[in-house]
Protein 1
Amino acid sequence: MSPMLENLSKLLDVEELDTNLFRSREHVENYRKVLFGGQVLGQALMAATRTVEGRLPHSLHAYFLRPGSSEKPVIYDVDPIRDGGSFTTRRVVAKQNGKAIFNMSASFQIDEPGFDHQASMPTEGLIPPEKLKNTQQLAEEAGMNGAAQNQRRYMVDFRPLDPMSYFDSKVREPRCMFWFRVDSPLSDDPVEHRSALCYASDMALLGTALQPHPISLFDPHLMPASLDHAMWFHRKFRADEWLLYVTDSPSASGARGYCRGQIFTRDGVLVASTTQEGLIRQIKG
């Protein structure tokens, strides 16, 4: 097991092996002893951006194909599929042991003006992050020391407005709100902030699909896994400053949960949107 990382910038960095070929330098383990999906998302976007100049990613669409191992590095093979006048497209395949574990298409755009409107940030019952406990503290208070250790590994401070919605099995509406920010300061590079947001965006979505059901994401009789993930970046932001993640789950069926998310700055600017479908399969004890 690698020493526990304390800096997300170090995790997101990838090593260039050859033209359009990259390799992860670090990893973070989760409680299932497999690669955390957000890590692969963030590193894949970082690898793709290393092949693009003068444009920032505005959207990505990804599929998780196989569980990744935290015992080996991940190879990121970038296909420079298109360089247009305004948009650039990259396709990334992440591999371990010679097999694809993940693929992603990402689109990049020049900076240009245009029409502008956005959804409003929910304000009813909104509690500031300074008055909330993070998921590590909540897990410790609930006697879930293993879960607390895993929360610390992620290097993101997550603070749910409903304190136990992340851990207990009480039936709730399929809606959640979390404040979050990266624990350590990031550089001023907007690519790093978008990659960090990819990483963090995978943390809170799937659990929302379990809210209407008497089971938690940490139940030993549940097999949870991200199946696909899409993200759109709307406006500038910093991932090391407080952001509000508003999620909902319109549907769960066929052992899959479908979830959506909106991410706002503290002053109400909508900076990103996400969607994800994940496996929520119950297994026998």
Protein 2
Amino acid sequence: MAQVYRQGDVIVRAIDAKPEGEATLLPHLTLAEGEATGHRHRIAKGAAELYQLTVGIMWLRVLSEFATLYHEEHEEVELPKGDYEVLIEREYDWVEGLEKKVVD
């Protein structure tokens, strides 16, 4: 079973290798940005690369022994070297028929 890490509405799931499809290297290490506070879920320590695969799907590669996922309102999360799928938790409003971002 894959190791899963969570920080608020950000879920980081270990994967065996890079997901299929074309990936664009992003010029930052921000996994998600808070809409209300402007705080960011970001890699603050360690070496890593963040890729955009398709809209809403990101892939993180931790290059150093560990990287630290940081956010001002959550505990830091240590991610060991490896590849990760980055997921943002969503909720579905059955009354309105809309998918909404979870606000942490």
Protein 3
Amino acid sequence: RWIAVSRDLEPLGFTMGTKVLITNADTLDSVWTIQDRMNKRFTKRIDFLVNVGTMGKWTNVKLELNEN
């Protein structure tokens, strides 16, 4: 399970290879690994790598660095 993060989140510890606990994203709630960076025009965003047909926009998604 991979995500991409906007570059403004990197100084907060959300860097390549980091495992992140995602909550408040319905069926996508779980631990994801950061494997990509988004274009610099995006801020305060994450992008889920999912199968075709799984689309949506969520608000109030919570990110937490996973200690495990």
